[in-house]
Amino acid sequence: MATDYYGALGLAPGATDSDIKKAYRRLARDLHPDVNPDPGAKERFQQVSRAYEALTDPEKRRIVDLGGDPYDNGARAGGSPFGAGAGFGGLGDIMDAFFGGATARGPRSRVREGGDALIRVELDLAETVFGTTTDITVDTAVLCDSCTGAGTAPGTHPTTCSTCNGRGEVQSVQRSFLGQVIASRPCPTCSGTGQVIPDPCPKCAGEGRVRTRRTIPVKIPAGVEDGMRIRLAGHGEVGPGGGPAGDLYVEVHERPHPVFTRDGEDLHCRVMLPMTAAALGTTLKLETLDGNEDLDIKPGTQSGSVLTLRAHGAPRLRATGRGNLLVHIDVQTPTRLDERQQELLRELASLRGEELPVGSGAPQGGLFSRVRDAFK
Fold first, then answer.
1. Helix and strand totals (H; E) in the chain
2. Which of 53, 113, 156, 370 could form a disulfide linkage to 199, CB 3.0–4.6 angstroms apart?
3. Which backbone phi and psi does 70 adopt, to 5 degrees?
């Protein structure tokens, strides 16, 4: 059986283009994998996208309305576009299926929905972690304030197209082995709208919209990550004929930070610790995004240790609480020692029994012997 593409969008057959677009946008917003973690949402989103594609393509929708499936191999290859159990509505329906449509669909509206727009904004780490409000400048089509979308000069109105007499389509007769076939196509004079504008608006040239540059304040929520998009409904392109505007998507790009790196909700940094401080222990003043914090270094801290400052990371975008700040310790071994420092280190090594062996005659109680004993 053919797929119920109207039902996938929650619509009845014969829904308008505007209804299809609104239903798709509503469902896509709820089912998109980026916002809906439910395992079944991805498959449902694909079904909705497939239905939207089928119903917004005039040829595919025609096959759907005839009871067929436009994605069926037989229909694409020129076979029967009708599903199981579908009846033939007469010779007119057969001609419509095979010769591009002889049934007039009437004029289409000049008013159409506008497209979506995308703009990228660069933010510092602190701005993505704590959130901010920033102004962005966009160059999009907006409603013409002279004709308010009508596209006509002041005091004038559209007139009926003389080529198609307002039908929006013109017909031609073609001869085939079946006889004469009437084929329809959009009127080239009025582009299928059934109306022409003899005196277009001087500001928008009959488009009902003009391009302009404007500044929009955007609220960045706390916890957004690099590559995420923020949707501003109705701030995209105004449609032809002054149609409703699409959406504006703001894509976040996070600038690299000189100290911290980010992994989801957690932050990471590295601290170089002198050998003596790692051995004896100390307290460091660590500058974090929340201000200065005391970091306790326990005696004997080894290089590669990771210390955790809880709730000092980024907020969880769809939950409560914050991530952590993970401090990676690198113990720094001195490379340049004066004579007194060398003397003190040798004395310490002697006290700890850690003298370096000399040649092959290392004492039995030295470093090598302890390593050998550890493997016995």
1. 10, 15
2. 156
3. -65, -15
Residue 104's alpha-carbon distances to 20, 54, 56, 161, 190, in angstroms, are 21, 20, 18, 16, 15
User: Alpha-carbon torsion 200, 201, 205, 209, what sign?
Assistant: negative
How far is it, in rounded angstroms, from Cα 16 to Cα 261?
50
Q: Which residues are bridge partners to 293 per DSSP?
A: 286
Q: Are 152 and 197 a contacting pair, CB within 8 Å?
A: yes
Tokens of residue 287, six digits: 């500058």
- Rounded CA-CA distance 101/93 in Å is 8
What fold characterizes domain 1-87?
A: Helix Hairpins (1.10.287)
Q: Rounded CA gap, 66 and 81, in Å?
A: 7
Task: Please state, in angstroms and as integers, the Cα–Cα distance from residue 278 to each residue in 184, 209, 270, 282, following that order.
Answer: 85, 68, 14, 7
pTM of the model: 0.61
Helix (H, G, I), strand (E, B) or coil at 103: coil
Distance CA 350, CA 364 (A): 15
Q: What is the mean pLDDT of each run of 10 residues along the chain (376 residues)?
A: 81 87 84 75 85 87 80 48 36 40 63 91 96 94 91 92 90 68 84 91 93 94 94 92 92 96 95 94 94 94 95 91 96 91 90 68 46 44
| Alpha-carbon span 47 to 4, nearest angstrom | 10
Length of the chain: 376
- Return the H-helix or E-strand segment holding 85: none
Which CATH number is 261-375 given? 2.60.260.20
Q: Which two tokens stand for residue 295?
A: 């970091």
In the structure encoding, which two tokens stand for residue 13, read together? 């057959």
pLDDT at 179: 62
Domain ranges of the chain: 1-87, 261-375
